[in-house]
Amino acid sequence: MKIKSKDVAKALNLSEATVSLVLNERPGVNADTRKRVLEYIRRREEEAYRQNRMTEMIDKGLILMLQYKKHGIIFDRRMNIRNDFTEKIANIIQEQGYDFEYAVYDERSDDLQKMISLWKERNLRGIYLMGAEMDKNNIFYFSEIGVPIVVGDNNFYNEGIDSYLVDNREGVRRCVEYLVERGHSQIVYLAESIDIFNFLERREAFILEMARKECGDAHKRILHLGNTYEEIYKSMCSYLEEGHRRPTAFVLESSLVSIGVMQALQEYRIKIPREISLVGFDEVPAVNMSGLKLTIVKGTHTRRHIAAMKHLIRYIEDNETEIIRVYYRTRMQEGNSVHDKTKYIYI
């Protein structure tokens, strides 16, 4: 957009001659006036650029990042999604010329058909569906919308939907192998009470890995404690009070389980790791545990979601037809919560 001298002069209450001198870098104009003219032109050019970009994005269409909320147990405990993470994704999408929106759909109260209709009016081109709380029945409506879909935190490969996932089985294998290598075989898995995709994969993997390591049938070594910190803490206290034969190690299904269990163990003055060893899944917020640092297995989240969005753009632009399922490996972060029994000889 070319800004005319007469428009600048009118806006700043200057003569066209004065504006012309500034634009042609000629003398005869004081420094303050020259600065006013150049600053005004810069602002107008930036406004014009933003308008053009918005027009381009509207023309190219909308890419939607949709958080699916089924019961809210997992969703509500997560960090506020409107942070640097979504800003990074928004920048990637907008750099490719698309409009971007992050939204939440709550199946208990929202009208999905109405929401999709509004997004279609904005030329909906693709959806990145964060589906940790979804089950198999929830995906069918989305598959009929007629735009490319990529799912995170769930697996709908058999339904023909691309998925980007944490490799839960590999993560549990790390946990079990780490404990077994340090002399533990009496291992119990402490779980939440909700059955979501990531948790189900971890539980199945625990049973398989315990069998593979010849540690016995682990079907009865999975204890469900609850879905809130209070429930988990109270269930763990009850377990300790009942005087069960204590295992030598626990695998903790989630950060919430880790916090509740560690607080209960501390209250009952059980020494970690000398009396019980712990390996957890996912990062745990700082808690007052007298120098204890939990050994954890953690997945890649931000990079995985960004990769999924980039794949969605390729899917839209290249008419990708191959269905893919991408697993991201976990990594272990060692702390001081596991006792190495192989270093001690008892006579």
Q: What do you see in this structure?
A:
The protein is α/β, with parallel strands linked by helices and 347 residues long. Helix content is 42%, strand content 18%. The longest helix has 30 residues, at 31-60. The mean pLDDT is 88. The protein has helices at residues 5-12, 16-23, 31-60, 84-95, 112-121, 140-143, 168-181, 197-212, 229-241, 255-267, 302-318; strands at 62-69, 99-106, 124-130, 149-152, 162-166, 187-192, 222-226, 249-252, 277-281, 295-298, 325-328, 331-333. It has eleven helices and twelve strands. The strands form two sheets. The chain has a six-stranded parallel sheet with strand order 2-1-3-4-5-11, sandwiched between helices. It has a six-stranded mixed sheet with strand order 7-6-8-9-10-12. The protein starts with a helix and ends in a 14-residue tail after the last strand.
What's the short story on this structure?
The protein has 347 residues and is α/β, with parallel strands linked by helices. It has helices spanning 5-12, 16-23, 31-60, 84-95, 112-121, 140-143, 168-181, 197-212, 229-241, 255-267, 302-318; strands spanning 62-69, 99-106, 124-130, 149-152, 162-166, 187-192, 222-226, 249-252, 277-281, 295-298, 325-328, 331-333. The protein is built from eleven helices and twelve strands.
